[in-house]
Amino acid sequence: MKPKERMAIERQHPDELDVAYRITNFEEVTAGFDEETAVREANRCLQCKKPTCRKGCPLNNRIPEFISLLRDGKLEEAYWVVRDKNSLPAVCSRVCPQEFQCEGSCVRGKKGDPVAIGMLERYIVDWMVANGKDLSRVCALPKNKKVAIVGSGPAGMTVAYYLAHEGYHCTIFESLPIDGGMLTVGIPAYRLPREIVEAEFDALKSCGVTVKNNVTVGKDISIEQLQEEYDAIFHAVGAHDSRKLGIEGEDLDGVLHGVDYLRRVNLGENLNLGKNIVVVGGGNVAIDVARTALRTGSDKVFILYRRTKAEMPASKAEIDHLEEEGVKIEMLAAPIKIHGENGKLTKIECLRMKLGECDTSGRCRPVVIEGSNFMIDADAIIPAISQNVNHIMDKGIDFELTSWGTYVVDPVTMQTSKDGIFTAGDSVLGPQTVAKAAYQAKVAAESIKRYLEGTDMKEGREVRDLL
Ligand SMILES: Cc1cc2nc3c(=O)[nH]c(=O)nc-3n(C[C@H](O)[C@H](O)[C@H](O)COP(=O)(O)OP(=O)(O)OC[C@H]3O[C@@H](n4cnc5c(N)ncnc54)[C@H](O)[C@@H]3O)c2cc1C
Ligand code: SF4
């Protein structure tokens, strides 16, 4: 096929569940491509000599290679090319914010739609599963070294994946009763079916990884105890403390915070907050909260955002899904006080905003319009305006921290300020993405291996700086 012919093919779109049906349940909204659609989409790829899409992917996935193999029908080979860089392809292909990562750097996006890289990666993985192919790598013979991993999110999973396959004994300590971190207590199942995460844990366990649930490090066991028992420690506790709005009335009944709300729903609590729900924030968490509230019985949900839709940090695809499902975005507005009666929220007082000065990236500052106060009746308000790292784990150890409360690390090794203790993911970057957590964790796994073998942790390494 000539480049001109490839350029003439339009981006393919996946099937999605009907809106009226999908808001009644947590079934996966977006279907995968079928073979014909996947090959047609793959044919849009120009196989650039210098593929910029790879730079956009935090994992530096071998994108043109796996797309070329898909085109040739060599799906098993394509899978192993994907797996070479990505410890969690079934997850990343579904949830990566591709428009800001791989697809955002695809040259085809300059004059039209980028190649649907995530959907192609997903097609390859789903094809392997549907065709009963073996997805597991050979596990090396056990070595006499033990690694403690704190946190079972994508960073913990990735370190366990690489080290267990090298023969190191890995034990994951997880404070929650379920595994997967934000993959299972944050991201809703309609975007990431739970069987996918469970399959990853089955694979880890078959390679000797042990998971100890309901154990909070810093409370049930200390880091010092882990140091005595294990040869190295990797911790990836994520960023699970919701940031507060800091306004009057935030302690009233009916105020819940974004990731706390999602965690409770995901852990199976039957939480119907009433009919009228106001969600505050413009990121993916706010959107997940709003769409989850719809699915748990609230029928008037809207998002309050202090800038305009153009400035929302959430993915465009997520904003489109949100609006299709009937959630309205009240732009240029911010809450200033939560009013209540008898300890229960009744109204939210807000101010109108306008856009002021813009920074070099073009993002404009919201400025208050004085005297523009207005009230909204609500049964619940859910601020979802970012998260901080929780430090219960640190008890007894004074890790060096940044002013944001994230862990300071050596960017080449991911070692913290303490010898033999490594970290990665949201606890280093603040709330970020699965692919970034997986990349940093892969770097940490290589360092831990060298640490355990007593070799130079830095020699010959080129590491992407995501900090
Ligand atoms: C609602 C929501 C939607 C998101 N959507 C996307 C998306 O679409 N795409 C994307 O790429 N990213 C998304 N993210 C971000 C992504 O989930 C995170 O960047 C990623 O999970 C970080 O991985 P992690 O391993 O660093 O931490 P986490 O996934 O947060 O895992 C940390 C784990 O450590 C455990 N833990 C914490 N403290 C202790 C302790 N003291 N002892 C034992 N265990 C402990 C926690 O319970 C948790 O299981 C989303 C996040 C949220 C909240
Ligand atoms: S891992 Fe994520 S960013 Fe990288 S190619 Fe796959 S979907 Fe794109």
Domain tally: 3
Oligomer: single chain
Strand order of the largest sheet: 3-2-1-4-15
Bound ligands, each once: flavin-adenine dinucleotide, iron/sulfur cluster
Number of strands: 15
Helix- and strand-based class? alpha/beta
User: Largest beta sheet, briefly?
Assistant: 5 strands, parallel
> Which residues sit in consecutive blocks of at least 5 with pLDDT less than 50?
none
- CATH fold type of the largest domain: FAD/NAD(P)-binding domain
**Amount of beta strand:** 15-25%
Approximate helicity band: 25-40%
CATH superfamily of the largest domain: FAD/NAD(P)-binding domain
Number of H/I helices: 17
- Supply Rg: 23 Å
What is the CATH first-level class name of the largest domain? Alpha Beta
Q: Which shape, going by the Cα principal axes?
A: globular
User: What's the architecture of the largest domain in CATH terms?
Assistant: 3-Layer(bba) Sandwich
Averaging pLDDT over every residue, what do you get?
A: 96
List the SSEs and their pairings.
Layout (H helix, E strand, L loop, with lengths): L2 H6 L10 H4 L12 H8 L9 H5 L6 H9 L3 H11 L3 H7 L21 H14 L15 E5 L3 H12 L3 E5 L8 H4 L8 H13 L3 E3 L10 H7 L2 E4 L5 E2 L15 H9 L9 E5 L3 H12 L4 E5 L11 H9 L3 E3 L2 E9 L2 E15 L5 E5 L5 E4 L2 E4 L3 E2 L32 E3 L2 H4 L4 H20 L14
Parallel strand pairs: 1-2, 1-4, 2-3, 4-15, 6-7, 6-13, 7-8
Antiparallel strand pairs: 5-14, 9-10, 10-11, 10-12
Bound molecules: flavin-adenine dinucleotide and iron/sulfur cluster (SF4).
